[in-house]
Design brief:
Blueprint lengths: L1 H9 L5 E4 L4 H8 L3 E4 L5 H6 L2 E4 L8 H8 L3 E4 H10 L3 E6 L4 H14 L4 E9 L3 E5 L4 E5 L14 E4 L13 H13 L3 E5 L11 E5 L6 E9 L2 E8 L2 E11 L2 H15 L4 H10 L8 E6 L2 E6 L4 H15 L3 E5 L4 H6 L1 H8 L5 E4 L14 H8 L3 E3 L2 H11 L5 E5 L4 H9 L6
Parallel strand pairs: 1-2, 3-4, 5-8, 5-9, 6-8, 9-10, 10-11, 11-12, 16-20, 17-18, 17-20, 18-19
Antiparallel strand pairs: 6-7, 12-13, 13-14, 15-16
Helix pairs in contact: 6-8, 6-9, 8-9, 10-12, 12-13
């Protein structure tokens, strides 16, 4: 939403908005001259004055600003509809879809465009360490995420489309996994050019698809993988022909797949190998993706956005390879519906972590549901702790952490800001 606000303001419109809490995003928008009202009531007066109202699907249908806008017959736009209209205006467009990794792959592609010195705009779902979640240097090329929540990806008319993977997530928006799979397939079929993973997709790729992969032969394949501290180097092969060696700064094998997806789509759009290699090697990370925040009680603090069982398993495996037995894990589940739907998978991913604290669920848009609560998850995992208190979490970490340990904060909710708060040295209230 903030990236759209910044882009629309750049186009000359007066933009204002509302959010529930003050945070980095609100402060950034205000610094750019966008007025933001903070509070649950929103800003009803500005709704009355507005010519159009853009809303995220994450808000409640009972939101007062949304209800007022409907009663006043304002032009109403879903976030994905606005993004789709904007993307349609660019000559060259790339959309990245997938249950995991789309923020990183989008940021990687943006780095490639920047290295090629092309006029482009990027709408990134997270915060690239240098570009943020919105970057503008022209309107010829655009890259954006295509999120599957409430089938929003079907509203993104990009000419080049990437499908990284398909997994059970946002299942509250779908009848079943087949419905989710068919939605991704419909998205894949809608573009002029298509890049898909050669490994593990639940559908047969369309005939025009270009594939990428590591373990299986693919049109774009990474071979001769080596890693140092879980930062991977690999050789890219294009249709069996060796192209170049790429060394990533981002931590984790999953980023090899993200880089290959960006590489393949860039080649389909005519970019040179040296430009693609330069962009990928300059990419460091996205905030909240194995991001090192500093020190706490002598331990290194790392935050990661992992909030799905497969993401948890992947991030934990990476952390264990680096830190071994020195790992302390704090996990905050994100939404009751996800935890409830994937409870057994969460239990399997977390069981075996020796020093584990589960923090109260981040509800996002949802009401409390004990069947998907962090407390129930803690009971099912066993041999771990649960807390709803910042103070008790801080005290447990003080007693548990030792010099050279790693404290890994996991989750897509406000656990990230709590981690930064603790690292900053400010006493919890």
């Amino acid at each position: 939403m903030s990236a759209l606000a910044l882009h629309i303001k750049r186009q000359g419109f007066h933009v204002s908005g509302s959010d529930v809490n003050v945070g980095e995003t609100v402060e950034k928008l205000r610094a750019c001259g966008i007025e933001v009202c903070v509070g649950k009531e929103g800003d009803l007066q500005r709704v009355e004055e507005a010519d159009a109202v853009v809303y995220t699907d994450a808000i409640s249908p009972e939101n007062k600003e949304l209800l007022l806008a409907k009663s006043l017959l304002k032009q109403l736009w879903r976030r994905a509809e606005v993004l789709g209209e904007l993307i349609a205006s660019f000559p060259f467009s790339v959309a990245v879809a997938g249950s995991h990794g789309k923020t990183t792959a989008t940021a990687m592609y943006a780095r490639i465009l920047k290295a090629a010195r092309l006029p482009f705009t990027a709408f990134i779902g997270g915060e690239d360490q240098e570009m943020g979640n919105y970057f503008f240097c022209g309107e010829e090329y655009v890259v954006a995420e295509a999120c599957e929540y409430k089938k929003n990806l079907l509203l993104i008319p990009a000419k080049t489309r990437i499908v990284l993977n398909v997994d059970q997530d946002h299942m509250e928006c779908y009848r079943d996994f087949a419905d989710l799979t068919n939605t991704f397939l419909e998205f894949a079929k809608g573009g002029e050019r298509l890049v898909v993973c050669a490994e593990g997709l639940p559908f047969t790729p369309p005939e025009n698809a270009v594939t990428f992969g590591v373990e299986k032969w693919a049109d774009y394949q990474a071979r001769e993988l080596k890693n140092e501290g879980e930062r991977y180097a690999f050789t890219v092969y294009e249709f069996g022909k060796r192209l170049c060696r790429v060394r990533l700064k981002a931590v984790g094998k999953c980023h090899v797949y993200n880089a290959l997806a960006a590489f393949a789509s860039a080649r389909l759009n005519g970019l040179k190998v040296k430009e693609i290699k330069a962009g990928l090697e300059r990419f460091s990370s996205v905030k909240r993706r194995f991001e090192e925040l500093g020190k706490l009680y002598g331990a290194t603090v790392i935050a990661d956005y992992a909030h799905h069982p497969k993401e948890l398993a992947s991030t934990l495996a990476t952390a264990k390879k680096i830190f071994g037995e020195r790992l302390i894990v704090v996990f905050q589940p994100h939404t009751y519906s996800r935890t409830k739907a994937l409870l057994e998978e969460f239990v399997a991913a977390l069981r075996g972590v020796e020093r584990l604290m589960l923090y109260k669920t981040y509800p996002a848009r949802e009401k409390y549901d004990g069947a998907g609560s962090a407390k129930l998850l803690a009971e099912r995992v066993g041999d771990c702790l649960y807390t709803e208190s910042k103070n008790s979490l801080a005290e447990w970490l003080r007693r548990t952490a030792k010099e050279n340990d790693c404290i890994l904060f996991l989750g897509a909710g406000d656990i990230y800001y709590l981690a930064k708060y603790l690292v900053s040295g400010v006493k919890s209230k």
